[in-house]
Each structure stands twice: as structure tokens, then as C-alpha cells.
């Protein structure tokens, strides 16, 4: 077990340092390496986002395979907002509020989501998550990433 932990600690230290030296964002490194930003966040062991009032988003699980799924745990303090850029076409997000209230903003339209409710939306539009109400909002988010397009066989020379 100690060898496994050390094997995981090494890339967790090296990837962020190398990414910083190369001046690459998580998005750009993920695009170049053909892995999700969420997987990089998990590797680097940092929250995707930490707000000034204590809000945060942490990756809990990333599945492998042709259509990976990321599972995130979010905590949103009242009035604190995380704006997200549009994802690639085909990404679908689902947010399930377990406590409190939030406002989900998709393509400029606000959607209140309360404890016990779930919302699903296409992630290829600008979207944001905002804490609402008087208390902390807790939610679980899943991000469904579409499979990569199938690549045909290499061209044959005549």
C-alpha cells in the first residue's frame, strides 16, 4: 500500500509543476493529453474551485472507458457563484441538490434547484452554479463526457 501511495504522490507533485512551467491551463493540458480537466484536478489533488466564502468543488470519481463520467461534490455558500465555460458538444451535466438551495444558470436563464431536486442540461453552453437561500447548498454533480469519434483505418498509399 505504501508503494501505491508513493506512486500516486509522485505524479501529483510533478504534473502541476510541469503544467505551470509550460504555462498550460488545466483545460489546455487536458485537451493536449486527451484526458478530462476533472481527471487532472483529481491527479493534482486540488479543488476545481474554492470560493472566497468557503464554497468548493471537488472531484470524487472519474470512470474510464469510451464515455467517461465524472462525479463531483460541491458546496455553495449563499450568493457565491462559479461560472463555467461551455464544454465540448455532447457533454451532459446533472446536478442533484442534497441540502439547501442553488440557482443553475444555463445560457443566461436562471433555474432554482432545491434540496431533493435534480436538473440535467447540455454542458456545451455557458453555465453557472450559485448558492441561494440562507444556508449552505450541497450537491452532487455528474458530468457525462461523450465518446471520442471513431477513427477509421489509416489511409493506404497506392
Could you please describe the fold and organization of this structure?
By secondary structure, this protein is α+β, with helices and mostly antiparallel strands. It has helices at residues 2-21, 26-33, 37-44, and strands at 49-50, 56-62, 69-76, 81-84, 92-99, 101-106, 109-114, 118-122, 127-132, 137-144.
Strand content: 35-45%
Shape: globular
Fraction of residues in H or I helices: 10-25%
Q: Uncertain spans, ≥5 residues at pLDDT below 50? A: none
**First CA to last CA: what distance?**
54 Å
Radius of gyration: 18 Å
The overall pLDDT, averaged over residues, is 84
Q: Pairing-aware structural class of the strands and helices?
A: alpha+beta
Tally of DSSP β-strands: 10
Can you write the helix and strand succession as a string? HHHEEEEEEEEEE
Amino acid at each position: 500500500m505504501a508503494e501505491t501511495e508513493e506512486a500516486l504522490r509522485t505524479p501529483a507533485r510533478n504534473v502541476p509543476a510541469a503544467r505551470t512551467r509550460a504555462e498550460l491551463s488545466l483545460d489546455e493540458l487536458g485537451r493536449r493529453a486527451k484526458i478530462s480537466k476533472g481527471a487532472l484536478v483529481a491527479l493534482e489533488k486540488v479543488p476545481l474551485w474554492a470560493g472566497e466564502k468557503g464554497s468548493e468543488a471537488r472531484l470524487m470519481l472519474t470512470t474510464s472507458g469510451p464515455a467517461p463520467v465524472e462525479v463531483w461534490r460541491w458546496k455553495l455558500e449563499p450568493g457565491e457563484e462559479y461560472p463555467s465555460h461551455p464544454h465540448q458538444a455532447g457533454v451532459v451535466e446533472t446536478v442533484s441538490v442534497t441540502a439547501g438551495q442553488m440557482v443553475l444558470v444555463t445560457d443566461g436563464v436562471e433555474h432554482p434547484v432545491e434540496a431533493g431536486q435534480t436538473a440535467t442540461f447540455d454542458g456545451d453552453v455557458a453555465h453557472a452554479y450559485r448558492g441561494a437561500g440562507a444556508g449552505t447548498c450541497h450537491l452532487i454533480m455528474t458530468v457525462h463526457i461523450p465518446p471520442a469519434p471513431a477513427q477509421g483505418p489509416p489511409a493506404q498509399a497506392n
